[in-house]
Amino acid sequence: MNADNFQMATEQFLNGLKRSAATLRAYRADLNHLQRWLLERQQDLDAPALEAYFAAHEWAASTQNRKQTAIERFCRWARQHGKLELDPTLHLERPTVPPPHPRGLRREDVERIFAVIPASQARDALLFRLVFETGLRISEALNIHLDDLDLTKGDEHLTVLGKGGQRRTVLLDDPKLVGALRKYLRSLEYEHGPLFQAQKNGRGGPLRYQSVQERWQRYAAQVGVSCTLHKLRHSHATELVNGGVNLGTIRKRLGHRHIQTTLRYAEVSDASADAELRKWRRSRK
């Protein structure tokens, strides 16, 4: 397909595409950029030209993926409508997009959600604070049994079964959490079994993740905060990083098998970075 035919086909493709206005603008910009590049080099739209086009531009992986999506959809359309004999995108490789840095929530926003949990829902309040203050996975928290707790004063901790069947000990170092846990335990009418039980038809059973997630979303919606339950784990990890806790310690705390997973949290805030640099500078004087 030569450049002139490419331009006309682009308009036909976009006119028949049922997408949002923002998506159409992005597709038009990406296809026009490719069309101008081909025109300047007097090249047709084919596989070698596309490979040269992407090789000539050092885009971020996410940007290249977006552009490839637009071009691939256009080329499939052009092939189906007889405007291309072969699809030149078939052998294009997609760049690997690194996972985004997990985004946590500020403590004040989390506390706003905790504040709307009724006093009658002590189980919910304890479960959610436990996840926030320890960074446990939701599945780990729901699988805690009373026998997994050790509330020896000054050395409170629990044992959890993590991914891959790996057990680890998690320190309960937040006084507010420990106090809520002791109070909750005094209210229970059983001494063995899951720490968090559902109360349905008067019979206790294991809590389901879905029901817990729905309850959390209702609380968050009351204060207008967008936050998944899993984001509490991210929030804890972010606090630890910004507090200067060693990444090896954070890895053990969160139960990561590989330090590379923990490194995703290593984007500390500007304020924390500045404070650490000032501390280092003062130590050299």
Biggest β-sheet description: 3 strands, antiparallel
Q: Which term fits the overall shape?
A: elongated
Strand order of the largest sheet: 1-2-3
* Rounded Rg: 27 Å
Average predicted confidence as pLDDT: 87
How do the helices and strands follow one another from N- to C-terminus?
A: HHHHHHHEEEHEEHHHHH
How is the secondary structure organized here?
Layout: H1 3-15, H2 21-40, H3 47-55, H4 61-80, H5 107-115, H6 122-134, H7 138-142, E1 149-150, E2 157-161, E3 167-171, H8 175-187, E4 197-200, E5 203-206, H9 209-222, H10 231-242, H11 247-254, H12 259-263, H13 270-283
Antiparallel strand pairs: 1-2, 2-3, 4-5
Explained architecture:
With 285 residues, this protein is mainly alpha-helical. The protein is built from 13 helices and 5 strands. The chain has a 3-stranded antiparallel β-sheet with strand order 1-2-3, with no helix packed on it. Strands 4-5 form a two-stranded antiparallel sheet. β4 and β5 form a beta hairpin. α1 packs antiparallel against α2. The N and C termini lie far apart (68 Å). The mean pLDDT is 87.
